[in-house]
Design brief:
The protein is α/β, with parallel strands linked by helices. Helices cover 43% and strands 17% of the residues. It has three domains: 85 residues, Orthogonal Bundle (Arc Repressor Mutant, subunit A), CATH 1.10.10.10; 224 residues, 3-Layer(aba) Sandwich (Rossmann fold); 81 residues, Helicase, Ruva Protein, domain 3. It has 17 helices and 17 strands.
Length: 427
């Protein structure tokens, strides 16, 4: 692999079987399984299916298959070998069934584990340029204190770990999503799959990885086993278990699915609503103490073999619970940045309320806001929350529509909206 201008890591196309880093046996198995499932294919189609060049790689593999009578040429519409139509033989079908018994993986050829390690190490999140201007633009839809922004900036720049905590409704998830969107503006290369000791780990996930659309993709010559994606932003919540943090082996297909932290390499992993998972938070934290500090994770194959995987993940823990209930001092020390999202001040609440009115087409009325704050917050000793303006105004609009009234900041509608929302915010 070479570095190319504009990319910290650039996978150049292999020119030979040796350049792929894979042995002939694996390529033969993958090719024969592909032919077995498709029936017949041209040389170019087989090369596309395995994401490998025809010349120098797939032509050699197909030459071997023909020599061993595992496939034969059915015909051609051109003199080019790429256009030859290959069909599997009976002997080839038997070989394909044997290969399927070992692994049912069919798709782009994998890359060696060592090449994956080099690629991730060469593309850390810290290599991207996150300027104060970019960060402020990403957070511009939120009303945040200067102290909060000044703490978030270095945390994203370092790209290691961040602990967001504070009362519910003050924007922890919104901030995390804005940071994730900012991070995903830059791109990186990841492989479709990784090979280790003959085992295949599928890395690419079309639910969590977004391909970068290249307008002139044909002009960019790179190893097609690698995919150019937006840096990952993956969110997990209450469904997270310890099993999600290790290799997932499918007993039927006989290949692995990468765990979430491996899929998030080079990007951001948000553990939302931390402390509400099915597994104890201490167990999750203990699992990640070493990776967070050493920037390397260790995964176990079903054979018992342990492999080292880079842990270049920006892990964000977001929780409504006090940190003292979740973690001990030793773990908090390993989380580089801790940011508390406090309740908004009256002035911040006013800015949020005004923005929410403008977004909904409701004429802003300062005296109406003063009424809301005095009667329903100060007198009832209810703490301010950043989410309240949005929710109260949505209630107000619903009531206005039902009663066929214009959505305005009248005392009557404010009181009705508050009454409909009051129990939920008091809990």
């Amino acid at each position: 692999m070479e570095q190319t201008e504009g990319f910290a890591f650039f996978p150049t196309p292999p020119r030979s079987i040796k350049d792929t880093g894979l042995n002939l046996g694996l390529l033969v198995d993958l090719t024969i399984k592909t032919l077995y499932l498709e029936g017949f294919m041209t040389g170019a189609q087989i090369a596309d299916a395995l994401a490998l060049p025809f010349t120098g790689v797939m032509d050699r593999v197909l030459e071997f298959l023909r020599r061993e009578h595992l496939c034969e040429v059915r015909g051609s519409k051109s003199v080019s070998e790429r256009a030859f139509e290959y069909i599997i033989t009976e002997k080839g079908s038997d070989k394909a069934k044997e290969a399927m018994e070992r692994s049912q993986y069919v798709g782009p050829a994998p890359v060696p584990l060592e090449e994956y390690r080099k690629a991730i190490k060469a593309q850390p999140l810290s290599s991207t340029l996150i300027t104060p201007e970019k960060l402020r633009k990403a957070l511009s839809h939120l009303v945040l204190g200067e102290d909060i922004i000044n703490q978030l900036g270095p945390a994203v720049t370092m790209g290691h770990s961040l602990f967001l905590y504070g009362p519910p409704g003050n924007g922890k998830t919104a901030i995390s999503e804005a940071l994730g969107k900012l991070i995903s503006e830059s791109s990186m290369f990841i492989p479709y799959a990784v090979e280790v000791n003959g085992h295949i780990i599928k890395v690419f996930d079309n639910l969590n990885h977004k391909l970068v659309v290249q307008g002139a993709e044909e002009l960019i010559q790179y190893d097609r086993r690698w995919l150019l994606i937006h840096r990952p932003f993956i969110t997990v919540g209450g469904e997270l278990t310890l099993e999600n943090l290790d290799l997932i082996y499918n007993e039927i297909t006989k290949y692995y699915e990468a765990p979430i932290q491996m899929k998030a390499n080079g990007g951001m992993l948000l553990i939302d609503d931390f402390g509400r998972q099915q597994v104890r938070p201490q167990d999750i934290l203990n699992r990640w103490i070493v990776p967070l500090e050493k920037r390397a994770d260790y995964l176990t194959l079903h054979t018992g073999l342990k492999i080292e995987i880079p842990f270049e993940v920006f892990v964000v823990f977001s929780t409504n619970l006090p940190p003292s209930q979740l973690v001990d001092e030793a773990f908090l020390r390993r989380i580089r940045y801790k940011v508390e999202l406090r309740n908004p001040t009256f002035e911040e609440y006013r800015l949020i309320f005004r923005r929410e009115c403008e977004a909904r087409g409701i004429p802003y009325d300062e005296s109406a806001l003063v009424y809301l704050l005095r009667e329903h917050y100060i007198k009832q000793k209810v703490p301010l929350r950043a989410c309240h303006p949005r929710d109260i105004l949505d209630q107000l609009i619903s009531i206005a529509r039902y009663t066929n009234k214009p959505p305005r900041l009248t005392k009557e509608l404010i009181d009705e909206a508050w009454a409909a929302y009051y129990l939920s915010i008091r809990k």
